[in-house]
Design a protein that fits this description.
The chain is an alpha/beta fold. It has one domain: TIM Barrel. About 35% of the residues lie in helices and about 15% in strands. The protein contains 15 helices and 15 strands. Strands 5-6-7-11-12-13-14-15 form an eight-stranded parallel beta barrel, surrounded by six helices. A three-stranded antiparallel β-sheet has the order 8-10-9, with no helix packed on it. Strands 1-2 form a two-stranded antiparallel ribbon. Helix 3 runs parallel beside helix 5, helix 7 runs parallel beside helix 9 and helix 13 packs parallel to helix 15. The radius of gyration is 21 Å and the shape is globular. The relative contact order is 0.16. Pfam families: GHL10. InterPro entries: Divisome_Glycosyl_Hydrolase, GH, GHL10, TAT_signal. This is Glycoside hydrolase family 10 protein.
Length: about 425
């Protein structure tokens, strides 16, 4: 997650720009919300009824962002660091850890399809001497935590040199599967064999481990890079017959990946959930009247060819966790407008809505003024509590949960997570 989304890119007067706060919540907006404290049992008929909600944190492994803190450490040190994140989740009265286990077409388990991740040992394909995913699942469940295995479907490498990949890497064995773009390598989503392969690689973990969910983030087709072309013309010429344009064909490719993966997960283990955490804006209302009242510089439907709203309405996924990574009152993409929009999208579908929260912004001097207030995130939880479709929150990312730069996470726990609760099921 998420180089672009992490920086909160939205559209301003001059196009896509880093977000700058212009307003804060008005008194009228605050008065319109009747917050309820979460984590406190509700009363029904004179009896306490447990309120279930998901309280999660992402633990990112790409580029050693959260864990392991550096490649090449001993198995004992890596394991101790992983356990520390799980213990932190328990101490914060969270109930879910979303662990990145396939960051760049590699694996944090002994996969028959892809090499061991370089972020474990520093050398792609080198056995780290232990099973990180197996350990994570067992230790999470021992602590009463759900473990959602986070996969990135198409990203192959954060560079464009195939020779730097392990000699047995599928991208080297099938160079026709791979396209360079924006300084990175990607599998080409338009090739049916690619779509089947990446499913097989991810679903191996479903078969072998007692994971609670398959989790994807916001990367499908890559985020647009000015002046560069994702060169899938030949693939479109081969497979695109019957589509009005390349955009429709690309969206269909992503649709197929989502639908097929959903079906195959349930064939393997019916109780394993399938959740997706997209960029927070499907489409702006100026583009589509069904869209949100936003002016985002990226629209998932148009730029990533991912119809996140459609997947919900068709019931292909079990939960959606949009990255609503902006503060309340932010003009171009207001948290207070996006949460109600997503709430209405999931209503009546049976798809759970969890809200992705930008803890990493709290106290970052490069962020707008609202993020310098330790209470901003707690206000998010209060605001979202007024919308009955919101069933939890997930915080990005693990290192920020631990360091908690200005005490924003402490404030959330103190205000809302007074006791442990179970995730919705």
């Amino acid at each position: 997650m998420r180089q672009l989304a992490r920086r909160g890119f939205v559209a301003g007067a001059a196009g896509v720009v880093a977000g700058v706060v212009t307003t804060v919540t008005t008194a009228g907006e605050a008065a319109a919300v009747t917050p309820r404290r979460t984590g406190v049992p509700a009363r029904r008929g004179g009896h306490h009824v447990e309120r279930r909600e998901l309280r999660g944190m992402w633990v990112a492994t790409v580029a050693n962002l959260d864990w392991p803190s550096a490649p090449g450490m001993s198995p004992a040190v890596q394991r101790a660091e992983l356990i520390a994140y799980l213990d932190e989740a328990v101490a914060r009265r969270l109930n879910t850890v979303v662990l990145q286990v396939r960051p760049t077409a590699d694996a944090f388990w002994p996969s028959p399809h892809e090499p061991w991740s370089q972020y474990l040992t520093g050398v792609q394909g080198k056995d780290p001497g232990w099973d990180p995913l197996g350990t994570a699942v067992g230790e999470a469940h021992r602590r009463g935590l759900e473990l959602h295995a986070w996969f990135n479907p198409y990203r192959v490498a954060n560079h464009t040199d195939p020779s730097r990949l392990a000699a047995t890497h599928p991208a080297r064995l099938h160079p026709d599967w791979v396209l360079p773009y924006g300084g990175k390598l990607y599998y080409n989503p338009g090739i049916p064999e690619v779509r089947r392969f990446v499913q097989d690689a991810m679903l191996d973990a479903v078969r072998r481990y007692d994971i609670d969910a398959v989790h994807w983030d916001d990367y499908f087709y890559p985020y647009p890079v000015a002046g560069q072309v994702f060169d899938d013309d030949a693939t479109y010429a081969k497979y695109g017959a019957g589509f009005p344009d390349k955009a429709a064909w690309r969206r269909d490719n992503t649709d197929k990946l989502v639908r097929e993966t959903a079906e195959r997960i349930k064939e393997i283990k019916k109780n394993v959930q399938f959740g997706i955490s997209p960029f927070g804006v499907w489409r702006n209302a100026a583009t589509d009247p069904l869209g949100s009242d936003t002016k985002a510089g990226v629209q998932t439907y148009d730029d990533l060819y991912a119809d996140t709203r459609g997947w919900i309405r068709k019931g292909w996924i079990d939960y959606i966790c949009p990255q609503v990574y902006w503060n309340i009152g932010f003009a171009a993409a207001d948290y207070a407008k996006l949460v109600p929009w997503w709430s209405e999208v999931v209503r009546g579908t049976g798809v759970d809505l969890f809200v992705g929260e930008a803890l990493y912004k709290a106290g970052d001097p490069a962020q707008p003024a609202a993020w310098q207030d330790p209470a901003e995130l707690s206000r998010h939880i209060d605001f979202a509590a007024a919308y009955d479709q919101v069933r939890g929150h997930v915080y990005f990312a693990g290192r920020d949960v631990v360091t908690d730069r200005i005490g924003a996470m402490d404030r959330v726990v103190r205000d809302h997570y007074r006791s442990r609760v179970r995730p919705p099921r």
